[in-house]
Design brief:
Length: 542
């Protein structure tokens, strides 16, 4: 076949409302009933074959200890080694496919997800990761669709980049996928991150070993099945839920390890990077390391800030999905004059947020992911309550009786270096430091210095000077910066996402910056009529 094919121009997938009476609400409720009443057995998947290791773990809903959703089989180093050999072999055939055929698999997955798979992936995310319908919709439906449609489009734009050619020569750039395999390690908090970490390198021709988070195996499994239905050949992505240390040891000691596509905590990424450094002489190529990691995301208000907009951003930005977004606001700096005006309304509105199971659509807040998160987050709340340097002014209650529930909590910290202003808590906890109105400039310095992270941040100011000061002074404090908006909710194609400093390599998920990391170009020069003698004109006698 000949022709210069173009991937269809992408648009962001529309967000369904799930309002009462809509067909999508009825369909989602039915899927919740179906997935909530069955117990799925999830195998390791290698070369398209189900592998049941017999070492199983239960999947229970974070919001309901009694709700058993299934079991998954744990992969260890032996399965990881088998999966690596399989994916390295599968990649050879896959990379030889014409680009339009590989792109079509992912475009088909996007369309299947937008239509027939939407309610399944949403229900699995809502039940397995405790998300409400809206939070799941923007993640498991819209963002995955966007990653695949925009990913194919951006890859197309990269492939178009070609060098110039001089007379008698044709220069070309061939965008080869990485030689070997990419190790994709995904977190619990976004179904779309797993779909992207495994899917994007695969789309451009890499073979992928995908280790999902143990808390997102259910939605990860359905993501894999979606790709399978869309026509992804066996082995291009091998699905290996399992023991992180054992699988990592198998992956990172392998000569064909060609790249790490990671999202998760800073600590784990740093340990993986250290391992790569130690093993560097083992590898056939220098591995590409892409990691998006933790954050301590801020909202800083100027004395001119709009009160209602600031209050709304604090609540939505801090508490949606229980604050378990890498981008969630978790520290705010508010001038005393503004604080006086918004404090009581902010406290009341926070205390009114409805909490409970995600199957009751009236709930804004659901459960945190597991007992470890519950203990760590409540530890911060208890220490703040007991501290002379902080007050818990809203929420603060919690219970693990039925599920891991923590009320959205506001802490007023009297010191800008109180632990709740500095650490990534990764839960529904927002810490606020109230500063004297005349210390705007010093406050910007404090925002910049307080945390090692630089993921997201927002400034609220009606005065343009305030906006400019924050943009300048906080230039390196956030990879995604918001003006008069909450610091969460980045959309593929609109706000390419990623942070610097300890927050990651800033390769901007869902953009060309990321895709390019999975490609290793070959420059080809073809000379039409090659020279046949060695001498140059300057060598001739005058
Ligand atoms: P996590 O670091 O606990 O786990 C992430 C992944 O790493 C999981 O698959 C886990 O099994 C694996 N892992 C854990 N220990 C490992 C080890 N020793 N070796 C190899 N793999 C190991 O993170 P999480 O709790 O799933 O997710 C929350 C964290 O992710 C937060 O810090 C959050 O800020 C971050 N995050 C960042 C972004 C971003 O874009 N910057 C997005 C989402 C989440």
């Amino acid at each position: 076949m000949s022709g210069t094919f173009r991937v269809p121009a992408p648009v962001n997938e529309p967000i369904h409302s799930y309002a009462p009476g809509t067909p999508e609400r009825a369909e989602l409720k039915a899927a919740l009933g179906r997935i909530g009443s069955q117990q799925v057995e999830i195998p390791v998947i290698i070369g398209g074959e189900a592998v049941r290791t017999g070492k199983t773990h239960e999947i229970r809903a974070p919001h309901d200890h009694d709700l058993l959703l299934g079991v998954w089989h744990e992969a260890g180093p032996a399965e990881a080694r088998k999966a690596i050999a399989n994916t390295v072999a599968a990649r050879r055939e896959w990379e030889s496919w014409p680009w339009e055929d590989r792109a079509a698999v992912f475009l088909k997955a996007a369309d299947l997800l937008a239509e027939t798979w939407r309610s399944t992936l949403n229900a699995a995310t809502m039940l397995g990761q405790s998300k409400n319908a809206f939070q799941s919709e923007i993640d498991a439906a819209c963002e995955i669709v966007d990653f695949y449609r925009f990913g194919a489009h951006f890859a197309d734009r990269i492939f178009e980049q070609q060098p110039i050619s001089d007379r008698g020569v044709w220069n070309r750039m061939e965008y080869r996928p990485l030689e070997g395999f990419v190790y994709a390690v995904s977190p619990f908090n976004f179904t779309a991150i797993g779909a992207n970490l495994a899917g994007t390198p695969a789309m451009v021709g890499c073979g992928v070993l995908w280790k999902p988070s143990k808390h997102a195996v259910l939605s990860g499994y359905y993501t894999y099945k979606l790709l399978e239905e869309a026509g992804l050949p066996p082995g291009v992505i091998n699905f290996v839920p399992g023991n992180p240390a054992g699988i990592t040891e198998a992956a990172m000691s392998h000569p064909d390890f060609a790249g790490l596509h990671f999202t998760g905590s800073t600590e784990v990424f740093q340990s993986l990077w250290t391992t790569v450094g130690r093993n560097i002489a083992t590898y056939r190529s220098y591995p590409r390391l892409v990691g998006e990691t933790g954050g301590k995301d801020f909202i800083v208000a100027h004395p001119s800030a709009d009160h209602a907009a600031l209050r709304t951003a604090i609540i939505r930005g801090s508490f949606e999905y229980q604050g378990q977004k890498c981008s969630a606001a978790s520290r705010a700096y508010i001038p005393r004059s503004v604080w006086k005006a918004i404090r009581d309304d902010l406290v009341d509105e926070t205390n009114e947020l409805r909490m409970g199971v995600p199957t009751d659509f009236r709930n804004f807040i659901n459960a945190v992911i597991d007992r470890g998160a519950f203990s760590s987050i409540t530890g911060y709340i208890d220490r703040a309550a007991a501290s002379a340097d902080a007050d818990v002014i809203a929420g603060g209650e919690y219970s693990d009786a039925e599920g891991f529930f923590i009320r959205p909590t506001l802490i007023e910290a009297r010191r800008p270096d109180h632990e709740s202003m500095c650490d990534e808590i990764f839960g529904p906890v927002m810490s606020i430091y109230v500063y004297p109105d005349n210390e705007w400039s010093e406050t910007l310095d404090t925002v910049d210095r307080t945390s090692p992270y630089a993921l997201t941040g927002a400034v609220f100011s009606q005065d343009r000077t305030g906006v400019r000061n924050a943009l300048d002074r906080l230039r390196n404090a956030a990879g995604n910066f918001y003006i008069n908006d909450k610091p969460t909710g980045a959309v593929v194609g609109q706000q390419p996402f990623g942070g610097g400093r300890a927050s990651g390599t800033n390769d901007k998920a869902g953009s060309a910056f990321n895709i390019i990391r999975w490609l290793t170009p070959r420059t080809i020069k073809e000379t039409m009529v090659p020279p046949t003698s060695v001498g140059y004109p300057f060598m001739e006698e005058a």
